[in-house]
Structure formats: structure tokens, C-alpha cells
Amino acid sequence: MYKYCVGMSPPSASPATGSSKTMLRFSTTLLLTATFLLVNADFPTETVTTCEANSVHRLSCESGVINVETAQYGRADNATCSEGKAQQVTSDTSCPMVSVKASLSNSCNGKRVCEVNSNIVSESNPCPSTSKYLQTKYNCFPAAQQVTCEHSLAHLQCYEGQALSIYYADYGRHDRHTCIHTLPAPQIQKTDCSRLVTEQVSAHCNGKNSCIIRAGNSVFGDPCFGTYKYLDVSYGCLWPLCSSSYSEKVSPSLIPKSVFFIPKQLTVRRVKRYIRKTDGRGEFIQGKKSHHQSFSAARQAGSSKKQTMLRFRLSTTLLLAATCSLFIAAVISTETAVTCDDSFNVHRLSCGIGVISVQAALYGRADNEICSAGRPQEQLADTDCFQEGTVDILRRRCDGKKVCELNLNAVRTSDPCNGIYKYLQTNYTCLPAIHFATCEHSVAHLHCDEGQVIFVYGADYGRRDMTTCSFKRPASQIENVHCSHHTSKVADSCNGKNSCTITASNSVFGDPCGGTYKYLEVAYVCEYPLVAPDESV
Description:
- This protein is an alpha+beta fold.
- The protein has 10 helices and 25 strands.
- The chain has helices at 18-40, 101-108, 198-205, 217-220, 268-275, 295-302, 307-327, 390-398, 489-494, 506-509, and strands at 4-5, 45-50, 56-60, 65-74, 98-99, 113-117, 133-141, 144-149, 152-157, 163-173, 193-196, 210-215, 230-240, 334-340, 346-350, 355-365, 385-386, 403-407, 423-431, 434-439, 442-447, 453-463, 483-486, 499-503, 519-527.
- The protein is globular, with a radius of gyration of 26 Å.
């Protein structure tokens, strides 16, 4: 029986010689060492707690797929989900937490997003007079995912020497935005259409280097007649084991293809700070100046620390340096969005990976070429025209989101230069962050590794689409998608803490849209507290 490791190329058969090859060998060793550190790190555990019956219990992975660790229903303390409840229904902390892991695992394992109704556990009632809650703990581990539309062929492929391992496969339809191009509405309306086909795909593909399988009723049957379907597969590509430590941590079926997630150990806010600097000395010209040390000052301060701290710093530096080389280059490039001034124009910022971090914004005019088509010269003459406070508006509206859209009416608070045709220009970056949504009546759990603290990029309470937290909700409760309220309460409650919980409810955030089932959307990072230059260790 083979065991496997992930994310590694096989060692070279021929030794490197010469100075250039020695340098290559050193770089490869550095990268492989850091990759092993990443691979052997425990996957962080996420927690979802849902308080009310008939609510949506939502698990999601920004990268990778869900692996349920525990799922329990009952009451273990008198604090969780106690808001607004009488003491007599929360005081029984001996109410046994009944395991419902099998139900959650069957519904959610291998998916990027999973929504179930909290009534999934209604058959279990360990203490009838006690108010109970459903709590699931899960991790997100890396895996490749492929969606193939009906009547097409799914091509699953690994690098030479690797073998396929199918983790999850489903045939049917779960939403109205996948595989829909030019299809009539009746063929995509049914979204509660699913057939688990993991065993069939596994039997056909496991152990092979590549595999082709048709997404069709002739292979998997027809779970919903008249609906256009698709095949959704999560899988890993595995090498024969070069170290047994990784495979001991997860079951063989859960071993991922590659380590492509952003680890919590990456202190992203420090990267954000350095994006805004104007020179190599760590000084900024935008935003508030930070009290942090420059990298060179940190190295000088480190020389006087204890030897144990030096060893810790060296190993951390090794990990972070390689992590940065693997991930940062792809996410810190600056994007620019420009929208010409018109009441009906939409200004849109978006991040395929990570979340928005607004660096600068201008409403006015800085040159005579942008948005100049068809405009007389006198409307372009003033190139020193800008409205104060524009960047603050954009940051409040967009920071921490994956997609942000706004009308220019939201920015136009004054006319900085009468008679000049203006535009809105925003420079932003996409920074890696932990991003999740917590359905109404559930508890948001934010947490970091030991020694790290939370920094919230942004939070919104309301509804911005019809798919998030929508499982078995009536259409009238999810149709208002222009219901969003930015809130600083999550940052006020959680910043600087190692872990934090906050309930997604109207009693905490107010009700931005009565009658709509809402959710709390949060983006945050985990970072190590900054050490002042004169602080002793």
C-alpha cells in the first residue's frame, strides 16, 4: 500500500555541480524546506455555530475544500447562543452534545461551500426544555476542483509520476450561475438537484495519472429530469510518500493536490503597509504613519536578543521568506479602476484572489487625457482638481470585500472644480485574507494561531446576492440584494484579540432591510503583534 506526500517534485537523479548549480541547489533546498514546513503545518480549524432552528448553517472554504472534524447538537455552556433567551433555557450545561458528524460530513465534505438547514438535527433532542445550538468544526485543505457541464468530458490530469485520488464528486445542479450560457430559464431553475457520485468517479479514476469521464445521464443517471446539470469533482494529485508525517495527519482520501492556500501565518498587514511606502526606508506618504520597525531596524534589534529568540526568528524568517516568494508576488500588484463622471456609471473593484485594499482614490482631474473623449478643452484644463476625503469613502465601502460596486453619486459630495469634467480613479491591491460569511442567527468565530492577533479588514451585514445563505429560504427573503450595511462593530470587538465570537443578528448590527434573511461578511488577517525597537524580549 502506497502512502503519499503532496506539492513536491521528485528529487533530481543527477547531482548539481558548479557554482551556479550550487546556488540552484541552495534555492531549491530553501524552497523545499519551506514547503515541507507548510505541508506539515496543521490545517486551521474553523467553527460555525447556528443558534436558531430553521436557520441556514453555512460552511465555506476560500481555498480548498471542506473536511468536517466534529459536528454536535446540544448545549455545553450557558454563554453560547444565550442572547435574548431566558436563563432557565440556557442553564442546563449538562445537556449532552449529540454527534451529528455523519450528516454534516455526507452533506459537506469535499465542497467549497455547503449550506444546510439547522433542522438537519431535528431528530435529535437530547434535552427538550433547553435551548440548543448546532456547532460544526472543520478545516479547509487544498484540493483541485473541476466543474464540467452536461454533455462535456471531464479531463482530470496530474503531473508525470503522480496519481489521481478523488475526494468528492456530485452530479446535478446547486445554483443558477454555473453552466447557464444561452440556456432557457426552465432548465436552470431547479437548484436542489444532486446525486453523490464519488464512488463511480473514484472507481474510474483513482490511481491513474489522467482520466476522462463524461458528464451525462448515461453515466450517472438523471437526478432531475429537464434540468441542465454539471459534474463537480474535487481531487488530489499524489506523489509516492517521501515523508510519512503528512499522511498520518489526514486520511488518504483527503490528501490534497498542492499547497495553494494562504496560510494564516502570513502577516499580510505588514505587506499592506510596505505597499504604501515611497522609498526603501519604510516611510509612508499615504495614510497614518505606523509605529512599526523597518526590516533593517528589526534585524539590528534582533542581534541583541536571546539565542533562542534568534533561532525562532531565523526559522520564522525562512518560512515567511519562502511563503512570500510563493504567494506575495501574485497578490500585491496594484490595480486601477477609472470611471468617467456620470450619475448612471458604476465604479467596480474586484479581486479574483484575496480582498480589496484601497491605496488611493481621486475624484476630480489630474491630467487632460483621462475621460477626455468628446470634451471641449476648457473642461479638461484644470489638472489640479481633487475632492478631499474620497479615499476614505472608498475604503469604508470597499476594503475587505472581494467585489465592490458603487455609483459615483456615493462619492460626489462636493464640486472641487466647477466646469471641469471629472472622473473617479481608484488604485487598489488584492491582499490575501480570511474571508467568510455567517448566516443570520449564527455565530461568527474569528481565531488565530497562538501568539497572533486579529486585524479586521472589513465587515458588512445584510445581503448582496441571492445565493449566499439561501438554502431552503423563501424567495421573498433573498430577493433584496441591495441591502448592505458596513459595520465597524466586528473590528471594535475583535481587533487585537487571539480569538473572538460575534452573533450575526439584528440585535447586534441593526436591521438594514426588514423581511430579508441576512448574513455577516467578514475579512480579516492574523498577525504577530509588533515589537517596539526599545522593547526587551
